[in-house]
Amino acid sequence: xxxxxxxxxVATIRNARGxxxxxxxxxxxxxxxxxxxxxxxxxxxxxxxxxxxxIDRLMAEIELPxxxxxxxxxxxxxxxxxxxxxxxxxxxxxxxxxxxxxxxxVAAGHNHIAPFVSRLSDAGCRVSxxxxxxxxxxxxxxxxxxxVVELHTGAYCEAALRxxxxxxxxxMELLRAGAAEAHRRGLEVHAGHGLTYDTVxxxxxxxxxxxxxxxxxxxxxxxFRGLREAVTTMRGLIAEARA
Length: 243
What we know:
alpha/beta, globular, 17% strand, 51% helix, eight-stranded parallel barrel
């Protein structure tokens, strides 16, 4: 299973004071040295963490594939088409939210989103849609021609944090079924959002999943143990789950 490390929140800390420190590109290098298979960065419309310059540098200085998370807007499309990262993950985005609050509703937004999938795919980007593990959303993702779906694990992680075992079991059932359905339809299946050392193993054990994208928790753990150890520990837990 591949591990994509999201380095957004290194930039969040940097932006709290301005200047150049800590450097998210340096974090990306350390993640690569520690076993990450890719780097994920979300270029938000309000530039609250990753900036355009960060994307320029990540494309120029990092050898690992870049997964650019972005909203389906013309501004973001222009940036993606200019850089042509390995992958583009279309995500929902509201300026008032602290973090992404759920999956992209590709069924309701089909007419708006489909042209983005087409143009990005034509440019050679591997297009992923960040969605809930819902059969309707998965079917629409396939119909749009997306190569990948990334299943939103936030609700599962929140239930685990509350200690709500019944809700955890329900969310896991949906995620397992969603991964199986997406795989059956020929989509590559990823997952992410809110995953920690305590919650990653049941998700990593889902056989159809091939990639996890994890960021906020790893950057938080890096404060206490360093980024290299944080990533290495996560890699070990994923390997245990896959075994």
